[in-house]
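We treat protein structure as text, and this decision shapes the records that our systems exchange. Such a record has a labelled line for the sequence and another for the backbone structure tokens. The record that follows is passed on verbatim for readers who wish to inspect the format:
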Amino acid sequence: MIILSLLHPVKQIPVQVWTFSDSESVIRIGRSNDNQVVLYSAVVSRHHVELHRVKAGWEMINLGTNGTYFEGKRVTQVPVMDGAVIRLARSGPNLQIRLNESALEELNRNPMLARLSHSGQDASHAPTEITSQTYPEFTNQDTPKQFFSADN
């Protein structure tokens, strides 16, 4: 079993969870509806990441234009360890990956995860829209009048 958890951007707790059986060989993540995990975010590519089952476990392959980050570094292909957190793009969503027994233990220990969970087999689940709020950047030369005047 493999569990992918979309983490809250500040609290780093799961806000949505997808579970996949051991029979899965590839899990696709991105903005397009043909992925098993669909995340609507401006920085997430249509086909951003694939997780592939390999002899030693799982590996992550970046397909995204904006990159995928593991332990703060942009990566193209890395083995996936239990508990790993990947970030889609520099400012995108964080996904935690739980593998095998630890994934099952996590579901049993935390009933909230079961309520947040979507089966990877069920393509009818609603995509997750990720929104962010940006603010104008101020420089030393900027004055509040420039940004908040009635003329703008």
